[in-house]
Design brief:
The structure holds 2 protein chains of 2 kinds.
Chain A lengths: L1 H17 L2 H31 L3 H4 L3 H25 L1 H8 L3 H5 L5 H33 L8 H27 L4 H20 L5 H10 L1 H9 L5 H28 L1
Chain B lengths: L1 E10 L2 E11 L4 E5 L6 H9 L6 E6 L2 E2 L4 H5 L2 E4 L11 H11 L7 H7 L15 H13 L5 E5 L7 H15 L3 E6 L2 H7 L2 E6 L2 E7 H8 L2 H16 L1
Parallel strand pairs in B: 3-8, 3-9, 6-7, 7-8
Antiparallel strand pairs in B: 1-2, 1-4, 4-5, 9-10
The chains are: A mainly alpha, B alpha/beta.
Chain lengths: 259, 237
């Protein structure tokens, strides 16, 4: 069982890394997150110069002023990047007809889905590691004794990884439901766009103003971003991942019934 | 080796396969013959367990391919019509993957590579191979683990005459150690390699007999197919 999951994961990773997409996405993410970091750092420096005598007055907390906004900006990039990374996972198996081999093999549908998902998780962890290098470099070149909160950075990165995994599960589900990778990317992008709209619902007043943003994965990252680990947020992401994987499993199994 | 009982499959309103009943003994080369769209591939996919029947069942070595799919599949090596490969990976990477999902040691690859004469293309990307080599790699996938039953869907489709002859020789050799079930619409292929013939037309079985017997009775397989189809169509109408 484990061997088959690992085999599916390894071959999916090979497929991901033999196409330029992962490298382009890594470049795109690190370039843009680097740009965000520079802009946020400049703003932080300007505030420091202005309120240097009294940092408390401007609430000049390094993590909250630079790292948290950086993470919250990267989540928008994930809305675009993750559907592109996940679009081929199962849809291309059908379009390349390699699904025929898997459907007639000893690989169980859930092993296939788990293997594909774990491959995506590995890519997301690799991307998050690349992104986390930038704040770490900033911490290294910061003045000795400046208060860099490594724990908060770790929490924020865990949150970003969880968000990425939840998006990957959604992307995998979309990829399982169609033969076209482009359609899979479009479908998961629309879903994630909807999640964004849910968050915007929080700008209104009333009951819906409270409920809608709570349903959005993007809102759930806010606590992680400021270094606050919440069981409810973790549970939310776990549930979203489980739903995505179940839909993907259903999509894979459907092939056996519908041909 | 294989027993089909009242096997049927429909796609929406279209009836692809209707109440097939047949039994295949081990150690033979059997051809599924019929025109395009007759239901050959659908039947083979149901035998492998890749497709669920609408009704009826298939037993492979006494395992129901739908109720006990993994026990049944462990007895089967399958070559689909389009070789099921990852074009962006090398041949050896594809072979290692199939080995892993079959739970085999990678050491068994060498024997299959030699048998299918793939040594020169192992390091090449799958997508860059000629049709003939792709078909051989697909066959190598099926052979990994030496399953007793080989199911080959249109194994010579798209090959040039020299490649067709090579593939037929390989199938003959395989028939000495495995039960081989292949689908084709080329009757010359059946005469060249098969002992037993299942003729299928519009999803129904019109003949289940030894190739030799059909040739003796009708002169050649084409006449046999046309005569059997005519009888069935008359009965249906």
């Amino acid at each position: 069982m484990i061997r088959r999951i690992v085999a599916v994961m390894k071959v999916e990773l090979l497929r991901q890394f033999t196409t330029p997409l992962v490298y382009v996405m890594a470049f795109f993410l690190s370039a843009l997150s680097g740009y965000f970091l520079i802009v946020l750092s400049q703003g932080f420096v300007e505030l420091t110069l202005k309120f240097g005598a009294n940092p408390e007055a401007a609430n000049l907390h390094f993590h909250e002023r630079i790292i948290a906004p950086l993470i919250l900006n990267i989540e928008y990039l994930f809305v675009v990047v993750i559907p592109l990374l996940s679009m081929r996972t199962l849809a291309a198996e059908r379009s390349q007809r390699s699904f025929e081999l898997l459907a007639a093999s000893l690989v169980r549908p859930w092993e296939l889905v788990c293997g594909k998902f774990l491959a995506l998780v590995s890519v997301i962890i690799a991307l998050c590691s690349v992104i986390s290098l930038e704040p770490l470099i900033l911490a290294m070149i910061a003045e000795p004794g400046s208060a860099f909160d490594y724990g908060a950075l770790a929490t924020a990165m865990v949150g970003l990884c969880l968000l990425g995994c939840a998006f990957a599960a959604v992307g995998l589900a979309a990829s399982a439901l169609t033969e076209s990778p482009a359609l899979a990317a479009g479908g998961s992008f629309l879903f994630l766009l909807f999640a964004w709209v849910l968050r915007l619902g929080g700008q209104g007043d009333g009951l819906w103003g409270q409920i809608l943003p709570a349903l959005s994965p993007l809102t759930r990252l806010e606590n992680f971003a400021i270094g606050r680990l919440s069981a409810a947020d973790v549970a939310y992401f776990v549930v979203l991942i489980a739903i995505g994987l179940m839909v993907a499993l259903r999509g894979v199994d459907r092939h056996r019934w519908q041909g | 080796m294989i027993r089909a009982e009242q096997l049927s499959r429909s796609f929406a309103a279209r009836r692809a396969v209707h109440q097939l009943n047949f039994e295949l003994k081990p150690g033979s080369v059997v051809a599924f013959v019929g025109p395009n769209g007759a239901g050959k591939t659908t039947t083979l996919r149901m035998i492998t367990g890749a497709l669920a029947p609408s009704s009826g069942r298939v037993l492979v070595d006494n395992f129901d391919t739908f109720e006990q799919p993994y026990q049944a599949r462990s007895k089967i090596g399958f070559l689909p019509e389009a070789p099921p490969l990852y074009p962006e990976l090398k041949v050896i990477e594809n072979l290692r993957f199939v080995c892993s999902i079959k739970g085999l040691d990678h050491a068994v690859i060498d024997a299959v590579v030699e048998r299918c004469e793939l040594g020169e293309v192992l390091g090449q990307l799958q997508g860059q191979l000629s049709k003939g080599f792709r078909q051989r790699v697909g066959l190598a996938f099926a052979l990994l683990g030496e399953p007793p039953l080989l199911i080959l869907d249109e194994p010579t489709s798209g090959l040039d005459p020299a490649q067709i002859e090579g593939m037929r020789n390989l199938i003959r050799t395989l028939g000495e150690q495995h039960t081989v079930v292949l689908s084709t619409h080329l009757l010359s292929e059946v005469e060249a390699v098969c002992d037993h013939v299942l003729m299928i037309d519009r999803g129904e079985l019109v003949a289940d007999a030894a190739a030799e017997d059909l040739i003796d009775e009708y002169g050649d397989l084409q006449q046999a197919f046309l005569a059997r189809c005519a009888v069935y169509r008359q009965e249906r109408s």
